[in-house]
Design brief:
Structural class: alpha+beta
Number of strands: 8
Distance between the termini: 84 Å
Radius of gyration: 31 Å
Largest sheet: 6 strands, antiparallel
Oligomer: single chain
Number of helices: 2
Shape: elongated
Order of helices and strands: HEEHEEEEEE
Strand content: 25-35%
Number of domains: 2
């Protein structure tokens, strides 16, 4: 009887450092994917409250419960003149359409009231908002001038796009 020599098995092993490098690469990719998904997912599940800029020293007159055309609606009054309120919203990220009959720029590039009527008149409309993923919103402010102790009233509308 003849005995054949035992064939040598060639084992192909992956070096340990290659396996560790592959696992590390997979972990880094998983973290990158999670970071891209986590913020929109968090915004979708726990939406942040919209940040509507409000000037100082204002008084809430009315908050409309379940407004028919918007997500939220508030009426404020202020002792600031209406052009200063428009300027506040311009300085805080709003884009405004200003009634030229109501406000004009002075030499310091500040909006000042052009005429002070005792009757209610529209001074401007300002819009702004946020385009955050899964939590975007828009706000609109209608600013009016009137006479009396509180010469300015403005109504804020909030529109959410969820």
């Amino acid at each position: 009887m003849t005995v054949e020599p035992q064939s040598q098995k060639s084992e192909s092993r992956i070096p340990l450092w290659v396996a560790w490098a592959g696992m590390l690469l997979a972990l880094v990719l998983a973290v990158i994917i999670m970071l891209t998904i986590l913020q929109p997912l968090t915004n979708l599940i726990f939406p942040a409250d919209p940040e509507i800029p409000l000037p100082n020293n204002i008084e809430l007159v009315e908050e409309v419960e379940n407004p028919p055309t918007s997500t939220g609606e508030w009426l404020y009054r202020s002792q600031m003149d209406a052009c200063r309120v428009v300027q506040f919203y311009l300085e805080n990220g709003g884009s405004c359409n200003i009634s030229t009959a109501s406000c004009e720029l002075n030499e310091d590039s500040d909006l000042v009231i052009q005429q002070n009527n005792l009757q209610l008149s529209s001074v401007g409309t300002c819009r702004g908002g946020s385009d955050a993923i899964a939590n975007s919103y828009t706000w609109e402010v209608l600013i009016s001038s009137q006479g009396g102790e509180y010469p300015t009233i403005f109504r804020i509308y909030l529109y959410t796009e969820r």
